[in-house]
Amino acid sequence: MESTGREQLDLETDTPPPHNIIFRKYRGCYVSRGIGLLLGVFFVSALLVTGLLVYYVAPHPPPAPPPASKPPLLSYQPLITTSPTSPISASTTSTSTTTTPASVEDAVTITKGGMTSQPLGAEPEGITDERESETKKGSPRLPRALRPLHYLVRLQPLINGNFTILGYVEVEMEVLEATSNITLHIADIITHNDTVKLRAAQDPTGPGLAIAAHQFDSEREFYVAHLNETLQPGDKYVLSMHFIGLLNDMMKGFYRSSYRHADGTVTWLAATQFQATDARRAFPCFDEPGLKATFEVHLARQSNMTSLSNMPVKETIPMEDQEGWLWDQYHTTVPMSTYLLAFVVSDFVNLNTVINDKILFRVWARSSAIRQAYYALDVGPRMLTHFVNFFSQPYPLPKLDMIAIPDFAAGAMENWGLAMYREILMLYDPRVSSAYNKQLVASVVGHELAHQWFGNLVTPRWWTDIWLNEGFASYLEYTGVDHVEPSWKIMEQFVLNRIQGMFTADSLASSHPIRHNAEHADKIAYDKGSSIIRMMSHFLGEAAFRRGLTEYLHRFKYDNAEQDDLWRHLTKAAHEAGTLPLNLTVKTIMDTWTLQMGYPVIKVERSADGTSATVSQERFLLVKDDNADDTHDYKWWVPLTYTGQDQPDFSQTQAKVWMKDSEAQVTVTSLPPKDHWVIFNLQQTGYYRVNYDDHNWNLLIQQLLTDHRAIATVNRAQIIDDALDLARAGRLPYSTALEVTTYLPVEKDFVPWAAAFENIAFLTDMLKDTAAYGAFRNYLLDILVPLYDSVGFQDRETDLLLDKYKRQKALSWACRLEHPDCLHNATTSYASWMANPDINSISPNLKSTVYCHAIAEGGEHEWTFAWQQYVAANVGSEKVTLLRAMGCTRRPWLLSKYLEMAFTPDSGIRKQDALTVFNAIANNDVGRQLAWVFLQDHWDDIYDFVERVPMRMIRSACRKFKTEHHLKELVEFYEAHSHQLPHNALDMAQLLEEVTGNVAWLKNHYDEVLAWLESQGHAYMLPSH
Ligand SMILES: [Zn+2]
């Protein structure tokens, strides 16, 4: 999965919400009280008076059990109806422009509790389960007595009806241990006890086994069939049931999405998102990654729509008694995990190609956006071929579909043979979208395709190893992009996007180990995971790394594995290649990086003659807490690489010296004489920081000032980032760290500049409203203006990708620092667009800067124009750029209005984008306090229907706090609401630690930075005479 949006290159960053947001405090009336009541009554009846519901929708009597070979068609009557008592009618749903979606939301709001697998039968008293103790929310495990072999899943989603799903499932199981009950997952599904049947697999038409009692455990999302007899190991059974589900609007399970045509009409579609534990919302199943099975999927659709699943369609047949409906029956899948299953029913269209005469590759989108899918169609097949070669393993399915879904909670999802994306991560329009959008598409496509092997073919046994999936996909996407777009220097960008961006969060005492028990991978899994995998590929050598991976994939294909399985195969390959000492294993090394949190800083202290150095390691913490009760002895196996000024060679990235986790320090010899610098951690391939003695720092600064190109580009970025963060943590004087930045006026490369800007952003946040800001700003303009002048305000034909990024960064910062020429250019470009809205001549790469600053400098007129363009835009990236830019206004009333709009249904802002708007406002100095107050005032609404979003909003509003007063507010807020955030204790601890760090930074470093600025001639006091 690509769980979060990528960081933008401009000053705004945000993370899309993992779940949508439903606010019940609607403005206006979207659903009549009568309909709401009716819906309530309808579903309450369904739960309490089951007979009525069963009579209405279920076969009566229940149908004969379907034979395994050719099951009968569903005999439910669909709930499409034009009856006046029907809550939603088919005819209005497909064409309505305003009221229907909202009333549907209300329907779900009302039924939310009711749809959570409630018991319909008598619940036996005193039933316990062998895993009763594991009721911790999040990961209750199924008993291990049974394993699923094969499923038949038949679903009829009523997309143009009332959004119910009529379902039938059969699961063939093998008994592993004697058991008298069958437990599987179920959630948000209504079934009826009478339809649940259990038969011996070899006797599909026999009378079956009696089920003594049905138990629904809504807490653990279990359905349990209690039997009178004991099933014996080795025997096989088939459990079947009919059920009713709901195409929810929560972007999980089998859910509904919609898009609006130019004429205002709305078309609905249905899609899935099952990772981690939401397949159980689409059909009852053994919903754990380790329980692989084969699946035969049948999807019902109306004849004007298309369905998609993991495999190609085997046969399409008309539905009996339901005119205009067809069953698409899919080929049986390979053995796979439930979370990778996928369904789509839509009216989308596709572009396609065939790879090597055997793999059908299609890209799908709504018809008015399909032209934006050409780039995905271009890079996708080339990347697939790259990974086939990289892994030396064929792609095992006959087809691969990629589809852009208008509402998608994750960034993208690697469902086997049917990858799904947010529109902005698959669609690209060269006339409208920026170079960065193009890189995003290539990267995310590469990520999801890498998962087809790493994750899909071989799957973690449990979610504790999910980091392996995400870390590998996040690293391998870089190899894929490097293959299809070699001029992008994507490997140089890795250090910015993955390592340096991760270092700050992982240097908190409240970080967590990469391998930990969570169903959802977080930034640590993606960024630290990919960083330590890259480190590993360098210390093992590319050839041994790939060989180990290939053998691991071959050994565990269609099966599950744990990180130790991978370490074993990599060790074997490295020992054979001679790249790892025979007495050292990959597990020994990697356990120190995956099982303990944080990372080290390496201190290099050279001898008096310079030719040797004492190298020590210590955990790097941004804020040292001497009272901390963590007594763990943090030490790592550190691959030391280095070079010297006498014979600089930055290409040698295999470990020259291993520093053991039992060693506090080692001695490195054969270094150059004392007047020549040394640099450790070449190409920043190691996941660690480096500090030097004062003399070596000064040698490095002199080198940068005289000829910076003598140091490799990535290591220049490393030196800048290490120096400024070492100073932030109090390990290096700011005078030294800031001295490193004085060479920047001659720097021409993007990567070092980007590393500098990331650190400058922190200093800017700290100093923004202090007396020192003017002096700081003047210094920044001093180093930036040469870059600004060199890049110009227009893209050039000859620009490479990194040239475009460099211009974008330079302009973004120049405007942010209120450089008059930059602001003038931004406002005039925007004004000429406003004067002629049909012609937008602003370079796609500069739009975020131009829009943001023109709106910030302007008033209501500029803001409203942006809104009109947002509504009219047909390209996802343009919509997001405008959404962020509207958050740049300095008019508080516009910001307040915008906040309300973001959280009002049908305002025109999609729920998936509400957090983007909130973040944009919280990032704005004028908006931050508004956002914080809004969050507190609307807390109950925000809290109610979302899972991880409230925490993200808190973080977004508060992460730049730097005063005792604000810290106290945050602490009090958390004290008042901690009971509502039981799963966010760690997130909250990290946020509090960051804010505490900010407060401490101002106390400890403000004077020091001010003194250095004054020493550079940037006095902050005005002359008094
Ligand atoms: Zn992923």
Automatic annotation (TrEMBL):
Zn(2+) binds at H447, H451, E470. Residues 375-593 form the Peptidase M1 membrane alanine aminopeptidase domain. The keyword Transmembrane applies. It is found in: Cell membrane; Membrane. GO terms for molecular function: alanyl aminopeptidase activity; metalloaminopeptidase activity; peptide binding; zinc ion binding. Keywords: Cell membrane, Disulfide bond, Glycoprotein, GPI-anchor, Hydrolase, Lipoprotein, Membrane, Metal-binding, Metalloprotease, Protease, Signal, Signal-anchor, Transmembrane, Transmembrane helix, Zinc. This is Aminopeptidase N. It comes from Scylla paramamosain.
